[in-house]
Each structure stands twice: as structure tokens, then as C-alpha cells.
Amino acid sequence: MKNRTVIYCNLKELLLNKDISIRQLSQEINEPFESIRRLHNNDTTRYSKQILEKICDYLDVQIEDILKIEKINQE
């Protein structure tokens, strides 16, 4: 059995807890809706430092609140 490390974005939960929509966040931080939607749905393959910084500032969170690392077992 081998472990694999997976990085995932926790933005969906953060926005839900703060009652903020994807569209509202994209407008507030002046970033394209599609970029925020991909983060929200955990569909992104590259993380923009600029967008992550803006999200951290706007939501008043740390990077580790947004990006999570998880080890999963592979059989």
C-alpha cells in the first residue's frame, strides 16, 4: 500500500461558512469569476499567488485555511 499526497482547495467551505457567493468574492477581489469558480470546485491545477493573497486578505484567513494537504492510501 502506498500513500499519495493530495492538495485540495477548501474555498467552498469557507465561502459557505461566511455566506459569500463565488460571484461576490470575484467582484470584491477583482478577479475573474471562472478563476474563483475553479478554486471553489477544486478544479484548478495551478494556484495563482495573487488570487490566493487576495482571498486571504478578503476572508481574513491564512493560506492553510484555503489549501489543505491530505495523504490518501492507494492499494
What does this structure look like?
- With 75 residues, this protein is of the alpha+beta class.
- Helices cover 52% and strands 21% of the residues.
- It has 5 helices and 2 strands, in the order βαααααβ.
- A two-stranded antiparallel sheet has the order 1-2.
- Helix 2 (22-29) crosses helix 3.
Question: What coarse outline follows from CA principal-axis ratios?
Answer: elongated
Helix content class:
40-55%
Q: Low-confidence segments, ≥5 residues, pLDDT <50?
A: none
Roughly how many Å apart are the termini?
5 Å
Run of helices and strands: EHHHHHE
List how many beta strands DSSP finds. Answer: 2
> What is the rounded Rg?
13 Å
Class from helix and strand fractions: alpha+beta
- Output mean pLDDT: 93
Q: What is the percentage of strand-forming residues?
A: 15-25%
Give the helix tally.
Answer: 5
| Biggest β-sheet description | 2 strands, antiparallel
Arrangement of strands in the largest sheet? 1-2
Briefly, what is this?
The protein is α+β, with helices and mostly antiparallel strands. It contains five helices and two strands; from the N terminus they run E-H-H-H-H-H-E. It has a two-stranded antiparallel sheet with strand order 1-2.
SSE blueprint:
Blueprint: E1 2-9, H1 11-18, H2 22-29, H3 33-40, H4 49-59, H5 63-66, E2 67-74
Antiparallel strand pairs: 1-2
Helix pairs in contact: 2-3
Name its key features.
single chain; 75 residues; alpha+beta; two-stranded antiparallel ribbon; 52% helix; elongated
